Amino acid sequence: MKKRSIFIAFLLIAVLLAGCSSYSGMKNEAGMNYATDKTGNYNYYHEGTEPSESADDIPGTSYRAADGNIISSRVYIQNADIIMETLKYDESVSGIEALVEKYGGFIQNRTVNGDGAISSGYYSARSARYVFRIPKDNFEPFMSELQQFGSITRNQTYVDDVTDEYYDYKIRLDTLNEQKKRLDELISQAKDINDIIVLENAVEETIYEIESIKGSLNRLESLISYSTISLNLDEVFESTLIRTVPQTFGERVRDRFRNSFENIKNGIEDFGVFIFGSILEIVLVLAVIAVLILIILKINKRAHKKSKKEVDADERPEEKK
After folding, report:
1. What DSSP element (H or E) covers 119?
2. Strand pairing category for 70-73 and 62-64
3. Residues 21-60: tens digit of each pLDDT
4. CA distances from 305 to 8, 14, 106, 310, 313 (A)
């Protein structure tokens, strides 16, 4: 009995070492292996084929084996950060959200600021912050149609290369599945209850690792299959004018003159808005000032008459003498 337990323990250790060896060598029984291309990136392929030197080495395209068969491709997460201005906020919001639905995407996050109400004499501009998830195959048409709902002032697109991480999960998962298969075979052959308990514990640990890796792989595949687009939508009253940076002396003078003219125009407009927008307050203040002036004049007039009477009264006794 003791010898059998030792034998089972050795078999269990052998299974675990075989799994680790398979994973660390980045090779499984399905024949997955790798080599590096001219750029130093990993090029995964199946055993029995070699990566072709003439394969497409452009990131994002498929790699080909020597026989011409597609063997793997780089795996990317596609992202975009966009800042957009709009003069028609409500129309832009409804149009963008309808566009997301049209291309099979969904809104992952949405934050709206401002209510558009007039406060302290000023209209409160609104803004919206979105995070969209769009199927990767619909990324380009979505980005193209998005431009109709406003003026894009910033558009940054970028990708995260997760090829190594993706295939690491895939190979690790295959290795663990093979390890579980071998453990199941050992359990079916085991007779001693202690051996069965040890093997079942090893199976439970393996299943836990398998489920953990499946969860990570599912999350990664979700990011790969759905592009992430972050959009800042701002309501404006005048679209931002995009100008080229002035280079020559004449262009610099012209640009400075244009800026000065716009500043003066804006100042005059602001002054006019203040005058006409505050006309009631101004009239009220002027009326109060006028009343105060009239009161002061009347008081001075009465004081002057009183002073004159006193002077006349003083002069009459002197005349009688």
Report:
1. strand 118-119
2. antiparallel
3. 544 444 433 334 444 343 333 344 333 333 333 333 333 4
4. 128, 124, 87, 9, 12
